Structures are given as structure tokens and as C-alpha cells.
């Protein structure tokens, strides 16, 4: 399978430099200069990874993330000129997987693309493996082979990282994971973000699966998180 990367930025010099470096590494690359063009390219090019600038005309990077909330297999690295933790948290809450602050080193960006591409590729288990069919917890069902989640038979819109995080927790109910454990398992050791990333994604998951009383995804104070054991009829 070709490794496809979409580069989106309104500064042509940045787009050209990133695209050139990626192509030298063997990636298939497409580019876009604004958010609206990026959405068109996503539909036609089907990238595994998108490098996405935040500040762009027509539709900014946050807007693109919002429009791609139902994506199942695109990893997003946000580029921003702001080194404010609030802006980074907003990006993660919108569904981005990683971020870099301009100016940045191309070599570091390539390393992050490689790490994210590896995680995206690993997140698709063989559909014919009977061990990877479904995880059931009450009305919540995780369809592993198709990377979909339903609650009361209604499909949820999860980002790749949300799906991976939920699957890890639900696959091992009652096992307590530290934030560092989850950060390593879902984002990988190369990820430079802090454990706050895990908290943000847990909050988003609770909202999406309707876990307002925090019975399915439980906080273990001072340690991390765990999933509750399935009720009667629930299974892995």
C-alpha cells in the first residue's frame, strides 16, 4: 500500500519544502493551499496522514478537523505559529493527533510523520481474525475489523486515536492503565505531547459514548483510567 501524505498550508514555500522532503523519503504526496481544497483532496487522494496548518484562508485547520470528525483512518499533524498550550489543546480536542510549532525542523517533522504513519497502519487488524471481531460492553459495541463503534446500534464518529484508546481500555476491563501507559500504547514513544492528551481524549470519548456518569470509562485517581467489566451478555 502506498504511503500517502497530504500537505496543507497557504505558504507555498513551506508546502514545497515539506513535499520535497516527503517525496525523497518515498511518500506519495498531494498538496493544498486552503482548508476547502484540503477536504476535496481528502476525498480524492485518501491520505493516511495529513500535515495541516491552522491559520489558512477560507477554512482554517480547526475547521478541517471538525469536518473530518467522522474520519476513520487519517492521522493529522497540526502546524501552528502559536506556542500556547491552549491552542494545542484545542487542536487535540478537534481530533488532531500531533502538533508542531513553526518554525520547525524538517527532520523532526519527518520523524513524526513516520511514527504517525506506523500507528495508522498498525491500527487495522486482519478482518478474518476471529479474535478481532467485536468487543461488547452493555449497549456499546466495538467492531474491530471495521474500526467502528456503535451505541444502541447508532454509529459514533471517533477519531483514530479515540478508537484506539477506547479499544485498549475495553479489551482489558478492570485493568488500570496509567496515563503514561496509554500515551505510549496509543500515541507511541516518539510522541512529544504530555499526558494531558490522554485526559482530553477520555473526556471526548465519555461525551461521545454517552458515559456521563463515568461508569464505563472510570478514573482511578492518582493513577489513570480503567474500563468497567461488561454486564450480563457482554463479551470480548
Automatic annotation (TrEMBL):
Residues where 4-aspartylphosphate is found: 53
Record-annotated Response regulatory domain positions: 4-117
Domain of life: Bacteria
Gene Ontology molecular function terms on file: phosphorelay response regulator activity; transcription cis-regulatory region binding
Alphabetical list of SMART domains matching this protein: REC (SM00448), Trans_reg_C (SM00862)
GO BP of this protein: regulation of DNA-templated transcription
CC annotations in GO: cytosol; protein-DNA complex
Pfam families: Response_reg, Trans_reg_C
DNA-binding region positions on the chain: 131-229
Keywords for the protein's UniProt record, in alphabetical order: DNA-binding, Phosphoprotein, Transcription, Transcription regulation, Two-component regulatory system
Residue ranges annotated for the OmpR/PhoB-type domain, each copy included: 131-229
Location(s) in or outside the cell: Cytoplasm
Protein name: XRE family transcriptional regulator
Organism annotation: Paenibacillus xylanivorans
